[in-house]
Write a structure and sequence with these properties.
heterodimer; A: about 110 residues; mainly beta; six-stranded mixed sheet; five-stranded antiparallel sheet; B: about 110 residues; seven-stranded mixed sheet; four-stranded antiparallel sheet
Chain lengths: ~110, ~110
């Protein structure tokens, strides 16, 4: 069965500092991996996704993530945090083959301190 | 192109009542999925519909049901509401079955008193 673990339910960084949100997955077959962001009182917005090909994936708002198969990780990074990045971030996984629903991690709330 | 819309945005019900939530997918999208989001359990998959047929179902009791219409719009119903059903219910649409890029609506916030 697939599962996703997000280390740290709450991460706090200073404005301008590096953002690193951790995600590890468990999957018996090659995964599709996603990062979503949720702002208060809103739905989820796709930040980036990995399906096949290049393991370093660039997304919106300056975020990127690297798929590391050997570490079963898909950590999300941004070189310089902005106040507007404060939100909840979710990592999700699904199978590459067949029709399977997304399995989400518990989420990481990112706070950005001025 | 308009995004996924969900109605109503907020609902307050009492225990034992039933509720119906509505979701209109992005135009041209044929798959609709529903998720329940709570602080304790996070995001949990409820079910997915495609071509008016349920294709996947999560681990929820039979009180939770859904359907999809020929125009791809979907509804979910919860009968005999319990306090624990209080949650944000999110709908997501995708172009096709197995297309994992899902677009989410703003959700319906259900409060059960």
């Amino acid at each position: 069965a697939q599962s996703v673990t997000q280390l740290g339910s709450h991460v706090s960084v200073s404005e301008g500092a590096l953002v690193l949100l951790r995600c590890n997955y468990s999957s018996s077959v090659p995964p599709y991996l996603f990062w979503y962001v949720q702002y208060p009182n809103q739905g989820l917005q796709l930040l980036l996704k990995y399906t096949t090909g290049a393991t370093l994936v660039k997304g919106i708002n300056g975020f990127e993530a690297e798929f590391k198969k050997s570490e079963t990780s898909f950590h999300l990074t941004k070189p310089s945090a902005h106040m507007s990045d404060a939100a909840e971030y979710f990592c999700a996984v699904s199978y590459t083959s067949g029709n399977t629903p997304l399995v989400f991690g518990k989420g990481t709330r990112l706070s950005v301190i001025a | 192109k308009a995004g996924v819309t969900q109605t109503p945005r907020y609902l307050i019900k009492t225990r034992g009542q039933q509720v119906t939530l509505s979701c209109s997918p992005i135009s041209g999208h044929r798959s609709v999925s529903w998720y329940q989001q709570t602080p304790g359990q996070g995001l949990q998959f409820l079910f997915e519909y495609f071509s008016e047929t349920q294709r996947n179902k999560g681990n929820f009791p039979g009180r939770f049901s859904g359907r999809q219409f020929s125009n791809s719009r979907s509804e979910m119903n919860v009968s005999t509401l319990e306090l624990g059903d209080s949650a944000l219910y999110l709908c997501a649409s995708s172009y096709n079955l197995g297309n994992n890029e899902q677009f989410f609506g703003p959700g319906t916030r259900l409060t059960v008193l």
